[in-house]
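Hello forum,

I keep getting stuck at the same step: I have a sequence, I want structure tokens, and every attempt I make locally crashes halfway through. Rather than fight my setup again tonight, could one of you with a working pipeline run this one for me? It's a single chain of 446 residues.
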Amino acid sequence: MSKIYVLDTNVLLQDPYSIFSFEDNDVVIPAVVLEEVDSKKRYMDEIGRNARQISRLIDNLRESGKLHEKIPLENGGTLRIELNHRSFHQLQEIFVEKTNDNRILAVAKNLSLEEEKKADGRTVILVSKDTLVRVKADAIGLESEDFLSDRVVENDHLYTGFTDVQVTLDILNKFYEKGQLLISELGAGYNTGAFYPNQFILLKDVLGSSSSALAMVDASRKHVKKLIFDHEHIWGIRPRNVQQTMAIELLLKKDLPLVTLIGKAGTGKTLLALASGLMQTEDYGDYKKLLVARPIVPMGKDLGYLPGEKEEKLRPWMQPIFDNLEYLFNTKKPGELEAILAGMGSIEVEALTYIRGRSIPDQFIIIDEAQNLSKHEVKTILTRVGEGSKIVLMGDPEQIDHPYLDAFNNGLTYVVERFKDQQIAGHVKLVKGERSGLAQLAADLL
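Reply #2:
Ran it on my machine without issues. Output:
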């Protein structure tokens, strides 16, 4: 039997095409949701873009019939705008204030009560990204669900970029002698499709000895090979753990124009990316410029407008980048870093606000805090990358400050999962924190 899904505003603002995600069921949009969407359409950000997009979609559906009646959708379901059922009588003793959330709850509850009176009454489900709305729905005996169709992965199954393989000592010795192995030589059950391109393999002795080796699957997925840049230091930075060794391999390989790094705070993502970018730009001359950018999304309450020119306004947002550059250049005096950067002229620190419309060839591009990007924003960024450029996306999906994103639907997670089987991309999840013992303990305990 089909169901009735009542959509909250945040579902439409997160994914304008969510109305087509409910198969052959009935989708109901309360009138108050349209009012909330209308109030967001003037925003010049991702929320405003989605508000305008859903407005256009609903407007196009008017050609199929009247919106307050059932309009057929391509997937076999229907859509209607609920203008009635705005009575607050059922909830006025529970929720005193007539907030928009409570009005949406009232619509869903009244529809549910109507269906209960019918012999063949259907289940009414409120769909919301707002946890407290779902809690309220449960309190009044109404079924509710989170909107999960926009999730790239379920739970914690995000691709890590590496895996362990148990092999015999003979296979390990053969790998050290030849520097590579056919994937079929790893043992029964391993074939060309067993791994992703550029995935790292930790070869371990099946008998439990300390013998091991670090290998990388080639682009053709036929061989596992030794790392090219194993134990190489970059601008005085040496890898402190095996995942950092993997990251350096990806960052220095010219045939990988896309690299994604995921890890908790203090795992070395930004430092390794900046060091490798500086080495390839300043020392090797592989790229004309090092471009560093990050989304302008505040943690906590926004400070409001900042004084000064663009560079002065960006400084507080980009301070984590400058902190790492000060470490790499070993600067100690105030203004010393600014003088170095001005003299070099090949390092550009930019806000992602200004990236639309640009074409960026022959540059090493670092996008920090990419977990705060939506799918649309990350697509916009990747389509700016020109010929001869390399882009590094990095962040921690567990530290998201964007109100409509989570660990499973953000742009960084989206890129990791979509590009994991592409030959031109590499990914690794950094596990161990190296900032300090306190930082690692805080990341684990808090």
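The domain at 4-145 is CATH 3.40.50.1010 (Rossmann fold). If your local run keeps crashing, start a new thread with the error log.
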